[in-house]
Every structure is written in structure tokens, then in C-alpha cells.
Sequence to fold (363 residues):
Amino acid sequence: DTHRIVLATRATMTTAPTVAPPRAALIKTPAWARRRRFDRVRRGGDRGSDSRRRSPVASASSSSDRSNLAASNLRELLAGDEILRAPCAHDALTAALIERAGFKVGFMSGFCVSAARLAMPDAGLISYGEMEDVGRHITQATSAGFPFIGDADDGYGNAMNAKRTVRGYARAGFAGILMEDQRAPKACGHTKPKCLGRDEAVARVRAACNERDEGPGGDIVVFARSDSRSAMDSLDEALWRVAAFADAGADALFVDALRTKDELRAFCKVAPGTPKMANMLEGGGRTPICSPEELQDMGFSVVAYPLTVLGAYVNATERVLREIKEDGYPDESRLPTFESLKATCGFPGYYADAERYDVTSGK
Fold:
């Protein structure tokens, strides 16, 4: 009897583990993939042809571990009634100044970063790593949740490169990412750009949107841009492309170098419900200069000022260098005081914080 009990016990111990699923089955579906399916259900299904009708707020991921405060804030601003004015920064200091001046959103310009970091033209010479590095400094120089949109040029390669760029920009703290349909080497849209074919351009946008929805970097607002107005000299082509980008899931749209106010109005009629961005390039750009109020009446949600801050910086620097060279001393009336400059760079806050850890003062 004892022998039969032992055998029965061994048989039970041998067969029990087969009741549970094998370990391979437990790890076959990673956690992020399970969250992705859950997010789709929470949002009411996959993003598809109805994406043009979706609110920019509605496309934010519902999963808390993929949340991005800056992206959430940008979506709320885009859903508002007031057009957003977005001056462009080229480094951490200009980003901090934009926020301090009271703007609600900022933009990191590829033209400006290439000029400031490399002293080179916006012609595909700056790399993803250099842009992402500047972007990380920009988002760290501003308040938590302050929305900055990052220029990602052409995504730095094919659709898979675009996915990596979206992931990196989200992890760097950007609220939004702007990606264009150019082929390498890219160029400023007001110069001599060259565009991808339609299918590849749409695939790149779709890849960027998939990364936004599924990737480990978290949420980010995807601005899809077309340069085909200049590259192909065709307004119809540009409008077809941005409509296709909206169908592919883009949160916002931009056509660079539109040439008349009628073209601006025509752009705003494409993909109703999807926010549109304009940019005002002073001093000789192809797009007519309009006031924010006029652009808002046309239907725009965002107006960027891509070269304004950089242009002011270049002019001021050249003037003061000329004064030093010719007169031996700059015009102090045009310079900040030392105290003001220290405040801009954060010295008062630094010293106040340092006092909390001063072990020599006897406090």
C-alpha cells in the first residue's frame, strides 16, 4: 500500500507542470504589444482612413506608461480656438527665452540648428544624433510639459529610420515632430528640395505614426510636411500628398513654400479637422507674410517663425563685432546689464538653491 501511494505521488508531481502553459507561450507576446492592443480597444479600433476626422486630442495613447505631458499639452492647445505662435529655437538658451517671453509653444528649426551648431546650410549635412542632442538640451532648458516641436528633416532615412527618429524625439522630451517627404540630401523648402515618390512618402508617414502609437518612446504629435510645391512645382501634388498623410494617421499637416494667400486657403480646405501649420519666412521667403489673425481666419492652427530668432541673433552679433572692430568698444545701450544677463542664465535661482546645501554658513 505504501509503495502504491509513493508511485501515485510521483505521477502527480510529474504531470502537474504540464497543466500550466510553457514558458515560451508566456513570453511570446511582449508587454508593449499587449498594451498596444489594449490601447486600440480604448481608442475604438485601429487608426485608418477615419484618422482625418479624429481630434488631435483623441489620438493620444491611453496607456499611462506611454504618456508624454508635453504632447498632451500640445494636443490640448491644437484643439483650442487660438492660433499658436511658435518662434524657432536653435539651442537651449533661445528655447528658454521663448518660454520666458510667454509663448505657449516653441519649435526647433533644422535650418537654425545646422547654422548654429555647424555653421553649415540646411542641406542634409546635420545628423539625427546631432539634432536629437540639441533637442534634449532644449527640452531640459524649459519647464516640464512645455511643448516644443522638433524638426526631424526627412526622418534621416527610410521608413525604419523614421520610426527610430520618432522614438528618439519622444524620449528626448519633444511634444511634436515634423517630418518631410524629401529624399536625401534634403534642403530648405524655399531653396531646391527634391521629393520622394508618393508611395514611399506615405509609407514614411505611416511608419512615424505607427511608432507614435506602438513604440516604447511614448506619445508624440506627428506633423507631416510636404515640400512638393517647390520640388515638383505643383500645388495639386502638394494637396494630394497632405491629404494622404492625414489618411496615414498624421496629427497635423504642413506644406512648405506656398506662394499665395489663395494657396494657403486651398491647403486649409484639405483634410478637415486636421490642424494645419504655416510658417512666415521674413526677408524674401516664397510664402506671403500674414498676421496670425489672418492665418487663423484661413483655418491655420499654428504659425511658425523659422528664422526670426536666428536672423536677429546674426544681425546683433555682426553689429556688435563691427562696433568693437571699428570703435574699440560696443554701444552699451544696446547690451543687457551684467545683472540682467546673469538672471537670463539662471544665476539667481542657482544661488538660492545652493544655499539649501551650504554647510559652512552655520544654518
Observations:
- The CA atoms of residues 41 and 113 lie 40 Å apart.
- The radius of gyration is 26 Å.
